[in-house]
Design brief:
- There is one protein chain.
- By secondary structure, the protein is of the alpha/beta class.
- 53% of the residues lie in helices and 18% in strands.
- An eight-stranded mixed barrel has the order 18-19-21-22-23-24-25-26, surrounded by four helices.
- Helix 3 (45-71) packs antiparallel against helix 8, helix 4 runs antiparallel to helix 5 (109-132) and helix 13 packs across helix 14 (407-424).
- The longest helix is centred in the first third of the chain and has 42 residues, at 213-254.
């Protein structure tokens, strides 16, 4: 074979041969570049690029063939017929385009072999069609081994070309693919030319030589250059446009906060700056690297498939990211990933979770979080057969700290108490803050109730130490209620409730002490709860009654008004006095509903009296804080037709201290309506003089405790005398409550007291107003209603 190839070189003109090889390589490289563009194109542009690629390589193979034939000099006259040239060109373009389409659209290794075989068959069809119209003065004989070798070698190069081509994203791969494709065409022609043996026939006609060698060379060269220039031009223009588009997209991608990475067959081909910053690597370091199970590790959490751990390229600590991916190609070989750093979000979520479970002032567990932890502790204690104890801690008279030292001092005290509780508590404990000055501690295991008693003692001792705030010494103390698991209950909610009951008993016992729960306490609480449920039904079912106690003038003994007093006709317990249910109403939030009922009923009944006496009603501290109080009073007066001047609201001093600003605002608005305001139980509060200075009351009532002792102690007489004198100096009428003896009446009259109220004047009764006159000691509301 090598002898034949060596001899063949003597039959070739080097100029034509070099042109043939150059045209072949240039057209092959152009075709591969156009093929690469067609592979990534979508829509209508895709087939155009593939056809241009087929035309380019078809013309290149055709030109290579005829340039090779022009370079060949068998020693006899030769020429080419036009039919063979045209048919060869058509076959070359069609077969090469088919090979290109196969390579671009078929998947797997069959793409490589099918494309290579079709390509070589196209080269062979073009070659032998042309040779069929080759005019020569002689006979051509073919050596089949050379022909077969040409097909095999050319096929190998063609298959290798398409195998190297791959996804054609790399310029080096495109260049190698084009060179292999050119070698396929070149080796086929070389070996097939080597297989030819011409035997001349002197005197034999070689046929009409239609086209001269010069014409063929010029036309082939011109046509090939035009095709190649067109293809290269289109490719270059498109490449520039693509580069600009890619650059725009890259700038857009780099402008996003999310990391974006594009992969082909699972390996990175491009990434934006955000992703590079996340993985701490350059683009060059990442190209060709796998993403899944290398940089990204999915399935590390149960929050969803979008969560993953990202491992930086510098092997620093992995961190959580959110991953969204989408395929860019139909065969899913190309994928784009959007990756968002979740570290800040996780930190924010953890902070929110902490805030949701902890008290903002003390950083102790809040009520909900404490109860959840307590449930888990009791479940563990039940499984391990261990005891547990719960301590309910409440600061004694903490309200005084806020009133005397201010709310900032109160907050400081709460934080200091929390700190001391952390210091005192040892072992497995849970500490929580469940109210303004209420704390709970759960103790796991130990020798109960001994350990719980010791712990309560330590807490009381620790909290007795004074607290310094802004050079002020604040003294506090605490009461503790204790309940035990499982001795008292196996329920977390009942354990807290029972400890609260014990705390209530500790406070009733004088504060600054500890008390253990007993089931007698539970029965007392259950009774109060039953009474609260009955009271709610009683208000709804109109079981309440009003009695009226008269207020008389000390000068002439005539009635000036009545105080409405509520009674409850319980269906089972009978007639109940206010002392039996008012405290229950306050504890269970029913006091406002009760006060509203008294207001509406008293105004309605007073509006029907024959004489325009005033009617006084008592309202609680909670009612005084109600923003809707003034509107309800106004609505009641309008609906009942009672004049505002006939309604008197009685409040105690302590009712002002819950929120003095709001209470005084409501009182001023009530007074603006024309309603009278009276100070009840005067002298028993914390700051009587400042209260009188803050609001102009229409009447002051001396507490019955002072009136009762005026006949026995000089101190009580001095207090009454001082209050009456204060009222006169302020121009405010004074009413004495609880007047039951003539001695009390004479003393009050001698001191200039304006009005009196008590059993000596008249007992509370239901309304039946028909009598004309009022007689002290014997008269009742029914006997004095018509007094003039």
């Amino acid at each position: 074979m090598f002898d034949r190839l060596s001899a063949l070189t003597d039959q070739f003109q080097s100029n034509y041969a070099l042109i043939a090889v150059g045209v072949c390589m240039l057209s092959s490289l152009t075709a591969v570049r156009l093929l690469a563009r067609g592979v990534v194109a979508r829509g209508e542009a895709r087939p155009i690029w593939l056809i241009l690629s087929g035309i380019s390589i078809g013309f290149g193979a055709w030109s290579t063939h005829f340039m090779t034939m022009l370079a060949y000099d068998p020693g006899v006259a030769t020429g080419h017929g036009p039919v063979g040239m045209v048919m060869a060109l058509i076959l070359a373009v069609l077969m090469m385009t088919a090979a290109i389409y196969t390579t671009a659209n078929v998947t797997g290794w069959i793409r490589v072999f099918a494309g290579g075989i079709i390509f070589v068959l196209g080269v062979a069809a073009m070659h032998y069609t042309s040779m069929n119209d080759f005019r020569i003065n002689g006979t051509i004989f073919y050596n089949k081994p050379y022909m077969i070798a040409g097909l095999v070698v050319a096929t190998a190069f063609a298959v290798g070309s398409f195998a190297v081509f791959g996804d054609a994203k790399s310029t080096l791969k495109q260049a190698l693919s084009g060179i292999f494709l050119g070698l396929s065409i070149t080796t086929f022609h070389v070996l097939n030319m080597a297989s030819m043996h011409v035997v001349s026939k002197p005197g034999a006609a070689g046929g009409a030589l239609v086209i001269s060698d010069a014409a063929i060379a010029v036309s082939i060269g011109a046509m090939t250059l035009v095709v190649i220039a067109t293809g290269l031009g289109a490719a270059l223009v498109d490449a520039q446009s693509s580069e600009k588009a890619v650059e725009r997209l890259r700038r857009l991608a780099n402008g996003t906060f999310e990391g974006i990475v594009i992969t082909t067959h699972g390996r990175i081909v491009d990434a934006n700056n955000s992703f590079l910053n996340l993985v701490r690597a350059s683009r060059e370091e990442l190209l060709g690297k796998p993403v899944e199970n290398s940089i990204l590790e999915r399935g590390y959490s149960q929050t969803g498939n979008d969560d993953a751990l990202l491992s930086p390229y510098d092997r620093s600590e992995a961190f959580p990211v959110e991953v969204r991916s989408r395929s860019l190609s139909e065969d899913k070989s190309e994928t784009v990933y959007a990756i968002r750093d979740l570290r800040e979000q996780r930190r924010a979520e953890e902070e929110i979770r902490h805030l949701a479970q902890h008290d903002a002032t003390t950083q102790l567990l809040n009520r909900n979080a404490f109860m959840n932890r307590l449930d888990m502790m009791l479940e563990r204690a039940s499984t391990e057969q261990e005891p547990a104890a719960l301590l309910f801690i409440d600061l004694d008279l903490f309200k005084n700290v806020n009133d005397v030292h201010g709310h900032r001092a109160g907050d400081h005290v709460i934080m200091e108490v929390a700190s001391r509780l952390r210091t005192v508590m040892k072992g497995t404990t849970i500490i929580g803050r469940v109210g303004g000055d209420e704390f709970v501690v759960a103790i796991y295991g130990g020798a109960q109730p001994k350990d719980a008693a010791q712990c309560a003692h330590n807490i009381i001792e620790e909290l007795q130490r004074e607290i310094i705030f802004e050079e002020q010494q604040i003294e506090i103390s605490a009461s503790v209620g204790v309940s035990l698991f499982p001795d008292d209950t196996d329920s977390a909610s009942d354990l807290v409730a029972f400890a609260d009951m014990a705390l209530y008993r500790a406070k009733k016992s004088g504060r600054n002490t500890a008390c253990f729960f007993s089931h007698e306490m539970d029965e007392s609480v259950r009774d109060r709860r039953r009474l609260a449920r009955d009271l709610k039904k009683g208000i709804d079912n109109n079981e309440l009654l009003l009695s009226y106690q008269p207020l008389a003038s000390m000068t002439d003994g005539r009635v000036v008004g009545f105080e409405a007093l509520v009674r409850w006709q319980h269906p089972v317990r009978g007639l109940m006095q206010p002392d039996d249910f008012i405290l229950v109403a306050e504890e269970n939030g029913l006091i406002i509903a009760l006060g509203n009922w008294v207001l509406e009923r008293a105004c309605s009944e007073a509006a029907q009296w024959e004489r325009p006496f005033r009617v006084a009603i008592n309202i609680s501290a909670l009612h005084l804080q109600d923003n809707s109080l003034v509107a309800r009073v106004h609505e009641t007066l309008v609906n009942t037709g009672l004049s505002p001047s006939r309604l008197e609201i009685e409040i105690t001093e302590s009712a002002l201290f819950l929120d003095q600003a709001r209470a005084l605002s409501n009182l001023r608005r009530l007074k603006a309506l024309g309603v009278r305001i009276a100070m009840d139980d005067f002298g028993t509060g914390y700051s009587s003089l400042s209260t009188l200075n803050a609001f102009p009351f229409d009447r002051i009532k001396i507490d019955r405790s002072f009136v009762e002792d005026v006949g026995r102690t000089e101190q009580s007489r001095m207090i009454v005398r001082a209050i009456v004198g204060l009222g006169h100096s302020l121009g405010v009428p004074i009413t004495a409550e609880g007047v039951e003896t003539e001695e009390q009446m004479e003393f009050l009259r001698s001191e200039g007291c304006d009005q009196a109220q008590g059993f000596l004047i008249g007992r509370p009764e239901a309304i039946g107003l028909h009598s004309e006159h009022f007689s002290p000691a014997t008269s009742t509301p029914s006997a004095v209603a018509k007094a003039s």
